Amino acid sequence: MEMTTATRQEVLGLYRSIFRLARKWQATSGQMEDTIREKQYILNEARTLFRKNKNLTDTDLIKQCIDECTARIEIGLHYKIPYPRPIHLPPMGLTPLRGRGLRSQEKLRKLSKPVYLRSHDEVS
């Protein structure tokens, strides 16, 4: 399967919007050093993830990456932080099922991970 022209345009549009966002970004602390550091993080994260995923051909995976990118942009703009928001789940805090151990908990944790954190562990 090949990436369609519409999908390609959507991906390139997201890439451009991330760079526009980085250019206009201001740290909430107001410190110039923080602003520069956060702008650099946004640019490095975008470059790394887009290069990592440039050879994807599966339309479902491409759609997941587009959804993750969109979610991370929206969360960054809403919370005014460039970093992914962490999730806080206690190690054995998901639904306890009788006879289920650590392996099932790890599977549940993986399934419960928000869309905007899918690639964060792979890159960080």
Question: Which characteristics define this entry?
Answer:
mainly alpha, Complex1_LYR_LYRM1, 124 residues, LYRM1, 0% strand, flat
How much of the residues is beta strand, in percent? under 5%
Question: Using only CA atoms, what is the Rg?
Answer: 17 Å
Main β-sheet description? none
Tell me the series of helices and strands, N- to C-terminal.
HHHHH
The level of helicity is 55-70%
Summed up, the helix count is: 5
- The total of beta strands comes to 0
Shape: flat
Global structural class: mainly alpha
**Mean of all residue-level pLDDT scores:** 83
Uncertain runs with pLDDT below 50, 5 residues or more? none
Description:
With 124 residues, the protein is an all-alpha fold. The protein has five helices and no strands. The protein has one domain (5-112). Pfam families: Complex1_LYR. It comes from Sapajus apella. This is LYR motif-containing protein 1 isoform X3. InterPro entries: Complex1_LYR_dom, Complex1_LYR_LYRM1, LYRM1.
Summarize the structure.
The protein is an all-alpha fold.
Write the layout of secondary structure elements.
Blueprint: H1 5-24, H2 32-52, H3 59-79, H4 102-111, H5 120-123
Helix pairs in contact: 1-2, 1-3
Pfam families: Complex1_LYR (PF05347)
Family: Belongs to the complex I LYR family.
InterPro entries: Complex1_LYR_dom, Complex1_LYR_LYRM1, LYRM1
